[in-house]
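Many introductory courses stop at the sequence. We go one step further.
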Amino acid sequence: MSGNGKSIKPPTLVVLQLTGGNDPLNTIVPYGEGLYYDLRKTVRIAPQEVLPIDARYGFHPAMRAIKPFWDDGKMAIISGVGYPNPNYSHFRSMDIWYTCEQDKIATDGWLGKAVHDIDPKAENVLTAVNFGRGLPRALSLSGVPVASVAQLDTYGLLTSLSSVPQRQSALEVFSCLYDDGWNDQGHTAAGPDSAGPGDEVLRYMGQTGLDAQKGADILRTALGKYQSDVQYPATGLAQSLRGIAQVKFADLGTRVFYTSLFGFDTHATQLPTHAKLWQEVSEAVAAFFADLRAHDEADDVVMLIWSEFGRRVKDNGAGTDHGAGSVAFILGEHVKGGMYGEYPSLKPSDLTLGNLKYTVDFRSTYATLLDQWMHIEPEPIVNGKFEEFAIV
């Protein structure tokens, strides 16, 4: 308990991925820098449209709903985020961000490792919940259960069966199908030495199936516990964040939430597309935190917003191509707002193949959140020691 009698809840991390490569120059706009307008002939934000941070930098005008976080000192802007010798492939760059491994192909995700530290025996199948289809590689780690929810109000196993007895009977068959005895004494009924080459796979599939059943049944209880006067926008991201709020308010022990918004690969029609995307992000995030505050649940939440790379400095006439030197955001009640890292230079002599040079290793951002917010040893997770910022 805290001094005012309120229970202190363990810290929660919400991760929002902007998939496709968000354009940092048109997100935190260097409108006070003439080189920006010299290099961006078409795909640029006019000075009078920018939401100013100071005389040099400002937010994209579509970020109006999220700007109050900055005004209230609850947003950290991390400029120039990247890694050495950047990769411009979506899939490879995302893998690097997911696994913190640049020199080899890895499968273990950084958040999967964090979840394992939080719950090493996998006692809670809902320690991590992803809102979206599939499992993000960031959360992937053998033995770490993660519930992936497309839509909470329809989530569950065999929910298309409207008859309660019929669904219950089907679920019993499902349980028998997956529970082959591995979970009774740690081995099959035939004995601990009888494992064949395929038994590990069967055990993994069996445990995954049982975790899915258990997680689905528990998650559906969150619906009945949720009431809110906050009006979320009618967008996919907003509904995902609303689902995250529902699960958090149900107090199911979830410590890591994940969701994504696609569409940031803006090679063409960038100006209207990017504006629409950032309006969706800003309004959804603003509604989410308003909901947290209305339920007195904001104090233990921090959100990380990131994208796998930036865009090239020069536009292509209609959009921007794959680049480097991205921007990340950390938001929350306990965040020490400010601009962290060095905004990359736009001087042609400072560019690499027409791209911004990174000034902050993305693993510094992870290390900061793991150490200072989640209270987890970061080095084994980010594969090394990286500079931390005094953000939280």
